[in-house]
Q: What sequence folds into this?
């Protein structure tokens, strides 16, 4: 199994399943903006940390399993892993916050104040 | 420089973010506490399982000298903790931002009233054309139908 195959299987499939469950609710401005922001922040925060670990040889990737060229000592699949993991986490949280509720994302307390 | 062991390297990177999230948005995390922790646990567990597969397939490996020596099957305990903490960072971040976005209208009104109170206390009025400002804020709060009053 290559790193890319691993990502398609273990991250691609849950994401596809979530997209099926959520469907139209994914095309909402608030969800898209928050998810994009978190994915960007995750990537920026992870990259230097992962780079240091790679340089220290704290962990390493088998050369035959990754695409090849390293961007700043990190294989491109690792960046993709970070983005897909953040996407999965954000989308799962979104699902948890909006599903199984009587009305919209507002919490019960807010409605009570009115 | 040979570098740090995995565990302190992970904690010094992840814990400040988690702490900051609780400091800045703890009230939202607490409000939604029956939902988001399950996402963290489920995602952390799932990714640890996926990691076991990747390690078994030989996609990546670790310098054993820098590990604690504790494993969950073939997964170093630090990896499991890594997945839990990274999931927590994103899940908490999303939850706080989501809940805060909802509250934004009320927060903005509250900060506006605080600013007015401070200006009055200092003895200075904010530089505005009074009638135009009042009509804009009046129509804006009517549109939003916020429940908060300036004294909230």
A:
């Amino acid at each position: 199994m290559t790193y890319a195959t691993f990502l398609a299987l273990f991250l691609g499939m849950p994401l596809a399943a979530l997209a099926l469950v959520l469907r139209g609710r994914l095309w909402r401005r608030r969800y898209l903006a928050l998810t994009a922001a978190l994915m960007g922040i995750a990537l920026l925060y992870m990259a230097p940390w992962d780079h240091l670990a790679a340089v220290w040889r704290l962990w390493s990737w088998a050369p035959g399993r990754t695409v090849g060229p390293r961007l700043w000592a990190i294989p491109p699949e690792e960046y993709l892993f970070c983005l897909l993991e953040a996407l999965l986490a954000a989308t799962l949280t979104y699902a948890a916050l909006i599903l199984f509720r009587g009305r919209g994302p507002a919490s019960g307390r807010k409605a009570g104040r009115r | 420089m040979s570098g740090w062991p995995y565990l302190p390297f992970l904690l010094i990177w992840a814990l400040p973010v988690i702490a900051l999230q609780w400091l800045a948005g703890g009230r939202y995390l607490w409000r939604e506490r029956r939902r988001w922790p399950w996402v963290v646990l489920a995602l952390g567990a799932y990714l640890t399982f996926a990691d076991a597969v990747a390690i078994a397939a030989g996609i990546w490996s670790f310098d054993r000298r820098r590990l604690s020596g504790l494993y969950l099957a073939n997964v170093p305990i630090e990896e499991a903790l890594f997945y839990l903490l990274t999931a927590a960072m994103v899940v908490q971040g999303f939850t706080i931002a989501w809940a805060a976005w909802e509250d934004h209208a009320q927060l903005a009104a509250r900060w506006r009233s605080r600013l007015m109170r401070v200006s009055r206390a200092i003895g200075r009025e904010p530089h505005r054309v009074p009638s135009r400002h009042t009509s804009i804020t009046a129509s804006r709060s009517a549109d939003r139908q916020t429940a908060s009053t300036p004294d909230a």
The radius of gyration of chain A is 18 Å. Chain A has a mean pLDDT of 88. DSSP finds four helices and one strand in chain A.
